[in-house]
Amino acid sequence: MNKKVLVTGGTGFIGSHTVVELQNNGFDVVIVDNLSNSKVEVLDQIEKITGTKPEFECFDLTDRQKTRAFFEKQSNLEAIIHFAASKAVGESVEKPLMYYHNNLNSLMNLMECMQEFEVKNLVFSSSCTVYGQPDQLPVTEQTPRKEAESPYGNTKSICEDIIRDVCKANPSLKGIALRYFNPIGAHESALIGELPLGVPNNLIPFLTQTVAGIRKELSVFGDDYNTPDGSAIRDYIHVVDLAKAHVVAIARLLNDQNKTNCEFFNVGTGNGVSVLEIINSFERSTGEKVPHRITDRREGDIEQIYADTTFANEELKWKAESTLDETLLSAWKWQENLKTMEF
């Protein structure tokens, strides 16, 4: 029998791509998602890609009773990948209580049930936001965490601390926190991709919707940063490369290859790219023009960050493979294909 993995937030952007990679690698998947920022039709799209529709339950993991009832039914879970969280920096500044409630309570409910029902393995969706604005670049896993620039970033730091402390108190539990940089792009089939509900909070869906005529223009938040072109710099990774890192992390836990029972890895490309460079790469790879204008800096944003991925490359035997042009072209193909899909 195939090993079963619970993927929380599995109909979301990163979650859906990870479900595809897990199924392609022989895992059975059960998804829990409250569909607050995704659509149930994603399950059909996953089935078109892999031939298998994942098991699905719709509820909110902040509901302790429903979470426990789910674990009572699922007696054969081998591991959990926890994506389910509110994730927009700007929104978290405006709605901090919502972010603390959703992101912290969902993890604590999950880990309480892991202990009670003896599910030993957890991969956590963390973020480079835990580093704040670092003093030195690129950041390694030993780079000191700083006070977060946003409530969203702070929830990721707190969640990492919860996992570390629970694993320390319960040596039979094992956790891996993957500190993502900036996932973009879409599956090569153009059947799944980033599908924000309402106005996008992330750069790439806003960019592609602007080019598609859905939005008037793209706002570039600041051109007065201390960077070569004045716009903010991030480390943009193809979402499929990121999804593959989760499969590797799960295999590491299940095969007892972890060095400690709580590990942290940077998951990025190792390259810093500015917002204006993103626009140039998109225009080069797609032949489309991006209407944009420079606006004021956005509260909660940092100037620049990108990863040193040496540890993840060597320890996980994983490496991001897609070029920036390939990644942005996949995002555009997804946007184009949305015209023909009933979402």
Automatic annotation (TrEMBL):
Quaternary organization: Homodimer.
Pfam families registered for this protein in UniProt: GDP_Man_Dehyd
Domain of life: Bacteria
EC number(s) reported in the record: 5.1.3.2
Taxon lineage: Bacteria, Pseudomonadati, Bacteroidota, Bacteroidia, Marinilabiliales
Keywords from the named record: Carbohydrate metabolism, Isomerase, NAD
Protein name: UDP-glucose 4-epimerase
Cofactor(s) listed in the protein's UniProt record: NAD(+)
UniProt GO cellular component terms: cytosol
Coiled coil feature spans: none
Any one GO biological process: galactose metabolic process
Keyword match Amino-acid biosynthesis: no
NAD(P)-binding domain sequence ranges: 6-327
Pathway: Carbohydrate metabolism; galactose metabolism
Keyword Ribosomal protein: no
Catalytic activity: UDP-alpha-D-glucose = UDP-alpha-D-galactose
Similarity section: Belongs to the NAD(P)-dependent epimerase/dehydratase family.
GO molecular function, one term: UDP-glucose 4-epimerase activity
InterPro entries per record: NAD(P)-bd_dom, NAD(P)-bd_dom_sf, UDP_G4E
